[in-house]
Amino acid sequence: MKKFLAVLMAGAMVLAMAGCSGGNSTASGSEASSADSSAADSTVSTADANSISASDGSAEVSAPATAEADDSAVEDAALPNAMKPDLLSAAIRNRLGLDEAASTAAAEQMLTKLMYNQGNPARVAKAIQKLQAGEEVTVAFLGGSITQGTGADNENCYAALTAKWIEEQYPGAKVNYVNAGIGATGSYIGVHRCDNDVLSKDPDLVFIDFSVNDESQNNNINKLTYEGLIRKIWNYTTAPGVICVAMTQDNGTSVQDCHGAVCAKLGVPMVSYHDAMLDFLDTQDGVQWSDISGDNIHPNLNGHAILSAMLTTYLQYVTDNLDSIDTTDPVLPDPGEEGAKYEKAQLLTTDDAQPVSTGAFQQKNMDFGGFKNPWIAKSSDGTFGDDSALVIEVEAQNIGILYGMLTNNAGLADVYVDDEFITTINADFTGGWGNYVQFAELKSFDESGKHTLKLVPRGTEGSPSAFYLSGITIS
What we know:
12 helices; 10-stranded antiparallel sheet; Jelly Rolls; 475 residues; disordered N terminus; 2 domains; alpha+beta; Rossmann fold
C-alpha cells in the first residue's frame, strides 16, 4: 500500500501549474495610492488585503470543483482512512451553538470541501512520528494578520489553538510554537522575511497563510513568490513539512486558485477554509458571516476555533493513516525558468544594511508595521536638501524595498538603481485603515551582481511629509 500511494502522490507532484487566476477583486476599503512609474520592469503593489470594511461519524474527502486541472490527482492521493468529523463537529457545536446532529452533519459536509489539494503528506507524517516518539518539534505559522491573531487574541488565535492541540495530543513531546504572522503582509514580504522569522527557529512543520493578502492583480508575481517560499522552506536543513491554508473574504475574494496551482505543482497539502466555510454558510440555516467574523476578512473567536479544527482534523487524518504513508522524502519537481526566482530571497533589515550615505534619513528605534527600526526622512515643510538621498549598495539579481504607507503626512521617494530612474513611490494612504508596510519590486537583472540603490525623498511644499524605509528585499 505504501508503495502504491507513493507512486500516485509522485504523479500528483509533477503536474504542471494550471495557472493563477486568483481572487476576483481587490480587498474592499483597502486601496492604497499607487506609485507613478516610468519603468516597465518595476512592480509596485497598491493595496492591502488585510483591510477592514465596515451522521455516521465519517466522511470521504472529495476533490474541490475549483481545482479543475488537478481533480484526478487530488482524488488519487486520498488516504485509505477517511477524515473524521469529530473535531470540526465539536468546534461548530461549542462555538456556534448547533445541536449535536446539526453540527455533525455540518462537519461532514465541510470535510467534502476541506482539502483543496491533498498533496504528499510524507513530511507531515514525519513530524507526527517525531511527536509520537516524544522528540522536540517546532511548529511555525507564517502569514498575515489572521495568523497574527486579529479577531481573536494571542491565546485563542487559530495558530495558538492548533499548537495547543498538538501539545495535548503528544504530552511526551516538547512542542515549540512560532507565530510569524505580520498584518498586511503577503507572500512577497513573506518569502523575504522567512529566513529571519521562521527558518532561524529550525521548524519541523510550517503552516502558510497568505491567500487574502496576496492580490489577484499581482498573480504574475504571487505564483513566483509563493513557489519560492515553499521551496525555501522545503529545502531547509530540517526538512520541514508544509501545510498551506486558503482563507477568504466575506465575498469569496482569495487567491486560493493561484496558490492552489502552486501546491498542486509541488505536491503540498492545502486546507481550504475558503471552500469549507463559504459552503457551510451557504447551506446552513441560521448561521451567517457575522457569526464567524467581525469584519470582512478576519475570523473572530468562533472563526479561529473552527479554522484550528480544520487544521487539526487534517493532522488527525494523517495520523490515522501513518501506516499507509510512504515517508520517503519527496523530491520537488524542477522549478523551470522562474520557479526558483525567490527561493534565495532575503530581507536586508535596516539594522543589517550599511548605507553608503543616509542623507535625510535617520534610523528610529521603534516598531513600524511589524518591522523594527525604520529609516525615516522627515520634513516640516515638505522640502528636502540636495544631499537628502539614502544610498546603499547591494548584491542581487532582483531588488525591491519595504516602505511605510501612511495615513498622515506621507511623502514620496524617487528611486534609482545604478543611477537609472526606476519609479516614484507615493506612500500616501490618507483615509485608510492605518499605517502598514508595503513592498515595491524595483528591478530585475539577468544575473546577480553589485548594484547601487538610491532613494530621494520628496514632499509637498508647505506641508509636513515623511517617508519610511523598512528594509531592502534581494534575491
